[in-house]
Amino acid sequence: MPKPQQASERVAVVGASMTQFGQREGWIMDLLAEAGIECLEDAGVDASDVEHLYVSNMASGEFEGMTGVPNALVHDLDAMPAYTQRVDQTSSSGGAGIYAAWQSIASGASDMTLLVGGEKMSHRSTPKTTDIIASVTHPVEYKTGVTLPSFAGLTARHYLERFDAPRESLGKVAVKNHKNGVDNPHAQFQKEVDLETILESPIVADPLRLYDFCPITDGSAALMFCPESVAKEYTDEYVIIAGVDGATDTHVVHEREDPTVMGGVVESGKGAYEMSGYGPDDIDVAELHDMFTILEFLQMEGLGFAEQGEAWKLIEEGYTERDTGELPVNTSGGLKSKGHPLGASGIAQGVEIYEQLIGEAGPRQVDADIGLACNVGGFGNCVITTIMEAAQ
Amino acid sequence: MPKPQQASERVAVVGASMTQFGQREGWIMDLLAEAGIECLEDAGVDASDVEHLYVSNMASGEFEGMTGVPNALVHDLDAMPAYTQRVDQTSSSGGAGIYAAWQSIASGASDMTLLVGGEKMSHRSTPKTTDIIASVTHPVEYKTGVTLPSFAGLTARHYLERFDAPRESLGKVAVKNHKNGVDNPHAQFQKEVDLETILESPIVADPLRLYDFCPITDGSAALMFCPESVAKEYTDEYVIIAGVDGATDTHVVHEREDPTVMGGVVESGKGAYEMSGYGPDDIDVAELHDMFTILEFLQMEGLGFAEQGEAWKLIEEGYTERDTGELPVNTSGGLKSKGHPLGASGIAQGVEIYEQLIGEAGPRQVDADIGLACNVGGFGNCVITTIMEAAQ
């Protein structure tokens, strides 16, 4: 759906932060507070000036037996009486938080909205964590024992066979994103991985192997939103949310007509492009949701960066390389090397685009005025696409 | 915080529904779908015209091991590619959903937003359910074994002693709300309870007894939101969201200066009054969050319907009676007799006010043009107040 912006002025991002991603001590509340405090400092905003505080988190109750986390965070940041709520859209909770924060500003409900997202997962066993995540699937599929990695394996096999793509092309997504992650001090894995290691790693869901998957991660990230007129009071270096939209696809994955097309990616991308007035060719840098390597291809295609069945050629050509490619993808390291703390990931994508657009991405810096982030919930069950541009 | 409405036009409610509340068969998804379908029919809106679909739910993962419920609901209602997310604000998730839906329309992000909320709780044991709800408390209080009923007992004792209020006045809240619930075909308890029964029921948290508490409930409720110009295309009988605001108080309850003042009630009420231009004297009917009888008094006072320490006199005077009082409170039966399925309750409050304002409350009908709903999260940790008015 096109989303014409009715609000009288544009929504700006004036601060960003993320914690170290990886295996972390502490509760979810500690991680959220860490990112929240750092974002307040980065934006130069007093906690008492925050009017809304949204928390992106999928499953603090399931992982830690703790609910009401947004209320606790407002208290811990001394931001009372700021209004707060939890935004849950499974693994796209962060992107959903961006959309919610945008709405809070664009509607006039808030003039300063702090968005903090995070997840604490690594203290649970891998089977337990996988089961909590698998609980997003439809009961008719969940009861068969299917998990998100199973969907990924089935889709990857179909893609490789149908489009005559080499298995190596998927591995090259992991090579690229790990290489980018080396320069991200917050990434869970700051080390390169070569193609041979990837192709010889243990099979998880054939044809996908261990290195085709993102890790289990603890971490938090934050962004600060306000109307553009307010942003100008704080800084000259801010970013505008030029377009944002979210869309669903069938919740029962096997009902989709074409398993290589993620309808939520296509529809949310369309909405974000339409709202912003930009198209795929205008995007200078993108963060895509590479929870599994195959997903980077499906988003490249769904967002119009490649024709259907041809994204694999672009990775082979180096089109998405950070320093030499036409469209650098996942300069942050992506979920693959940065890690994937569910509620934080979509926000961390936004943090990377924000830093790229204001020129603070350090050794990861590319030349970019317009960036895109695509955050995928479940196996494309709901997707949020955000387009940001540097302030003029 | 005052929330001036920047949007070019007002936000309308054009449809409402609620399921039978009580012990229900089926999953949360079944309950949500039931209310969602009925709300689409009530509003005369096609599922394909829904642009955003928000789901208010606190704990489907904890109660049922099921997440991603909003995505499943969009699928089951055949509303793809409508954007969806879960709104969690503990026991005020429904009120938070109203605020989120308002923001989605006022920001221009959506021209038709379906809000559905619900909870499925009764299949779990009372200790387990109480523990899931108690997980909203701050860890420093949770670890002492405190639960929401404990807070209620402590506060009630303090209130009765400090303001020299008779124990009977609390019982009369239950008598009134049960009496109102008799005429609500969706209420969990459709039967009167006399004062003697209440005062002799088992002690739960001294001085509060069994009948001072709302029950554990399954159920769902829904509301349909759109811009006023769109509402006119569907119906002449719609309601306007005149004011809405949310606010937090300390998450650690024992840090509050005055345990009889709920800061979240006061602040959210102030914001909603300011946005609407109305004050306490303008309100014709109110739904207050009577999870515990004492809460009705605290909200009466926090919202300016009574002076501090004097709400108990109003119940003694019959001021809040449905058919004879100046300000009918909880005409629906309140959480006390209608039941309290966490994610549904705030929306069900909105359903009651909507029906009162368009004159469809049947035997519960009062004379009202302006109504207020106050939805309390945790023990006042976050509160959302909404003021609705009948369309002119």
Automatic annotation (TrEMBL), chains A, B:
Superkingdom field: Archaea
Record flagged with keyword Transferase = yes
Pinpoint the Thiolase N-terminal domain residues: 11-229
Which protein are we looking at?
Answer: Propanoyl-CoA C-acyltransferase
- Source organism of this protein record: Natronorubrum bangense JCM 10635
Under the heading Pfam families, the entry gives: Thiolase_C_1, Thiolase_N
Domain Thiolase C-terminal, chain residue ranges per copy = 247-389
Keywords attached to this Swiss-Prot or TrEMBL record, sorted alphabetically, are:
Acyltransferase, Isoprene biosynthesis, Transferase
Q: What taxonomic classification does the UniProt entry list for its organism?
A: Archaea, Methanobacteriati, Methanobacteriota, Stenosarchaea group, Halobacteria
Gene3D superfamilies linked: 3.40.47.10
GO BP, one example? isoprenoid biosynthetic process
A GO molecular-function descriptor: acyltransferase activity, transferring groups other than amino-acyl groups
